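Researcher: Going back to the complex we discussed earlier. I've cleaned up the inputs and rechecked each line, so this should be the final set. Can you rerun the prediction on the complete assembly and write out the structure?
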Amino acid sequence: MGAYLSVPSWVRNLDSRYRFVLGECTECGGYTFPPEGACVECNAVGTLEPVEPAGTGEVVAQTVIESGAPPEFAALLDAQGAIGVVLVELDEGARVPGMLTDCDPREVARGDRVESVVRRIYEQEGIVRYGAKFRPEP
Amino acid sequence: MREVYLVGAAQSAFGSFPDESYRSLFAAAFERALDSVDGDVDRTSIDEAYVGSLGVGGRQLGLSGPAVTEHVGLDGTSCTRIENACAASGSAFRQGVLAVRAGAADLALAGGVEVMTDTSGERTREWLGVSGETEWERMAGTTFAGVYAHMADAHMAEHGTTREHLSSVAVKNHANGANNPDAHLQFETTLDDAMDAATVADPLNLFDCCPTSDGASVALLASRETAEELTDDPIRVTGSGQASSRVGLFQRPSLTSIPATGDAADQAYDEAGVGPEDVDFAEVHDCFSIAELVACEDLGFCDAGEAGEYVLSGATEPDGERPVNLSGGLKSKGHPIGATGTGQIAEVYKQLRGEAGERQVDGLHRGLTHNVGGSGGAVAVHVFEEGWA
Ligand SMILES: [Zn+2]
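Model: Rerun complete. Updated structure for the full complex:
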C-alpha cells in the first residue's frame, strides 16, 4: 500500500521522471516543472515548450527523513536508516524535488551542487518504477 | 451583503478515542455547540450544513457529510462535505459565511470531523502524505514533516531562525494546552526537552510536530435577524478570506512564506476594515513549529524573517501583546485534520465570550483564525469581533 500512481500516469511523464525535462514559457521565459499546466512564473496556459536540462543544480532546501516514511518508502528507510530529500534549483531555472542517493544525506546541505542520476524509485503492483535522484557533484 | 454572526461553537475533546466513532465524535461536538448558544436552537431550523473531512483511513469517503448530520437528527437538511486537506473546516466555515451572506441560509452549520488513531501505523503514514503533491513531491520520498522541514531549513538559512526559536513555539503551545481540558496533549514541556527530542525530518524533531488526533468541531452561523433571537452577546464574523496556491512547495516562489496565507488575510482584513495591528489574539495553523513562525509573518504580526525573535520576545504568550494559540494550537490541542479549522473558531468563540476557563485571557475583543491545507495549497482566514455591527 502506498501513494497510488497508476502505471500509465508514471509512463506518460517518463522524460521528466528520468531527466527532469522542464517547460520553458514562451510568454515570460520562466521554467516550470513538470512541463504541463500553467507556467509557475506567469500563470500563462499552453505556453510551455519542453527543455532538456543538464540535470545539475544547487540544493535550496534539504531534509533527512528519519521516521514516518510513507509505506512505499518504508523498506528503503529501514535499509538506509534515513532518506535525504532535497529541493534543487536546476541550472536552467526550475525548482524540482528529489531524493538523495549514493551519499550520506546528512553530509549534503543547502548550497551544495548536485547532479541527477537514474535509480530505482519504488515498486507498486509488481512493477518497479525508475526515475531520477540526486547525488553530490564529483 | 448581510451580516454574519457566530452564535455557537464547540469542539469535542481531541485525542485518541478507540471507543468513539466519527459519528459519535461529531455528535459530541454538535450537542456542545447547541449548548453553547445562549438561546434555544431548533436543530431542524439549520438551513445548510458544511462538514470538513479528509477521510483519513478511508472510513466513509463518499457522503461523509450527510453520514454525520443524519446521526444528529438533521435528516433532510442540505449537507455538503468539504475536502481541503487540513483546511477542510476553515473552508467549510467560509461556505457557511457565504450562504448566510447570500441569504440562502438564516442558520448554517460548519464543522468537521476526523478519526486518525484507530488505523495501523502503515495506513496512517499513507494517509498523512495524501495532501502533499502526490506525483512528484511525494515520489521524492518526502513526508508531510519533510515538506515543512524544507521550509524550516530555508527559513533558518535565509533569516537566521534557530533551533531555540522553533522549540519556543512548542514550549508556549504546550503550556497553553496544559490548561485546556479538551486538548490531546495536556502536558507542559521544557525548552531543553523540546530542543533535544528525536529527529523526525531534520531540522524538525518530535516536538516540532503536532500529533494525529481524533475529534470533531461545530460552529453555528446566523443572519442578524436570527442572531438577535438567539443572543444578547453576539460575535460577528467581520472578515472572511480564502485563497489557494500551488499544492507542491517546489512550484511556489518562496520557501519561507505561504502566499495563500497573505492572500486570504488581505481579503479578511479588508472586509473587516482592520489590519494585523488590530488583532487582539489569533489561533494559527501550527501543524509544525515552523508553520507558526511563518504564519506570524504572513499574517503581518511581525516582519518577514523575524518571527523567531517575535515569539521569543513573549509577544505571543497569554500575557503578551497578541496571544497566539491560547488553545494549545495544533501542537498541544491536537490536529484531527477535518476538525481543526472550526476547532480554532470554537476557541475564539470561547475567549471572546469569557468562557475559556483556566486559559481565559481578559480584554480580548477581536480574534483571528488561520487554517492551512497541506503545506499551503489552501488557506482560510477569518476575523471575529464582539458586538452588533
Ligand atoms: Zn510564464
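Model: Worth noting: Chain A touches chain B at residues 1-3, 5, 9, 13, 32-34, 40, 60-71, 73-74, 76, 83, 85, 87, 95-99, 106, 110-111, 121-122, 131 (CB under 8 Å).
Researcher: Good, that matches what I expected from the previous run.
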